[in-house]
Amino acid sequence: MTEDKIAILALVRTPGVGSVTIRQLISYCGGAEKVHRSDYKKLIKIPGIGDKVARSIIAKHGWSDAEKEFEKCTKSGINLIFYTDPTYPKRLKPLYDSPVLLYSQGVIDYNAVRTVGIVGTRKVTDYGKSVTETIIRDLAPYQPLLVSGLAYGVDITAHRACLKNGLPTVGVMASGLDVIYPAAHKRTAEEMQATGGLVTENPLGTKPDFMRFPARNRIIAGLSDVTIVVESAKKGGSLITTEYAQNYHREVYAVPGNVGSLYSEGCNQLIKNNKASLFLSVEELAKDLQWVVGKSEPKAPSKYDKPEAELVFEGFTQDEGQVLAMLKKGGDMQIDEMSWQSGIHLGKLATLLLNLEFQGMVRSLPGKKYALI
């Protein structure tokens, strides 16, 4: 296991090798260690692998840095989660641009029953701060994992409100885990690790360069079933997060603000352009998402319920049978995850699910999820 982790880190540290290339290499070679044991002739035949990358891998240019980084992570209690690991967040796994490796610190349940992202301006107003604290307080009975970015303003208000109300919260960082940004939030970041923690895709020592924040925002959106924008100017990182959330088929809500308020312009525009639902209260949100208080969603009794032994899929096409079997095994599933597991293109899968809905076999749920009836 140690060698495999170092082998993965070495690929991440190899110049010219990104997430897509790493997936390609491992897919063709059968594992990270096997990539490093491959010769030039084998590597150069892999699509997308050129002479420079092949020679860098053979020369083990990233290996020394990987060994040092693995040792630092081990000493600091940082967990390395590769995308093929069973512990990799299930909400991120099916996404086309999901990180190939996560650096995680704390006791984060990435696969919590419910996850909520809260984002907003760094220049939060008194109104925005009050709304954020109220949302967190009212979310507490539903015990979601709260996801945000540890930044000034709405983010840190949300994290601190979670600590106050006993909610687990994770801060997604645009830097390495050893570079807390902003430094003023270091104490809060440490307190969060008791029930939640910190996560990033960036190696140790990475500075929070401007270009890394949009990439950070996609992870916030990907980890969240629903993203709530509390306050946002007409342009800002929060709106980038909502774009990612929409691309991932996740729910987006925006808190309305006064006409003319600089830091409500973005939220009001999202609502006006039907890019976000109007957020009025957690009670309304829970109703929309069919949440009930508790850690699991009880299955509503139905006249269609049958003992498992009687549930057969005769009379359906091969693809329909595959979808039904997947839902039978996995329970409620998002369409992106179903597409990733089955290999069926999203467009075709959407048609299959619609046909199965018409036949009374499948029902659609909030958050682009589907379940057997």
Shape: globular
Helicity, as a percent range: 40-55%
* Sheet with most strands: strand arrangement: 1-2-6-5-4-3-7-8-9
Which percent band covers the strand fraction?
5-15%
Low-pLDDT stretches are 298-311
- How many structural domains in the coordinates? 3
pLDDT averaged residue by residue: 89
Structural class: alpha/beta
The CATH C-level name of the largest domain is Alpha Beta
What is the chain-wise order of helices and strands? HHHHHHEEEHEHEHEHEHEHEHHEHHEE
| CATH A-level architecture of the largest domain | 3-Layer(aba) Sandwich
Distance between the termini: 41 Å
InterPro entries: DprA, DprA_WH, DrpA_SLOG, Hlx-hairpin-Hlx_DNA-bd_motif, RuvA_2-like, WH-like_DNA-bd_sf
Organism: Persicitalea jodogahamensis
Family: Belongs to the DprA/Smf family.
Protein name: DNA processing protein DprA
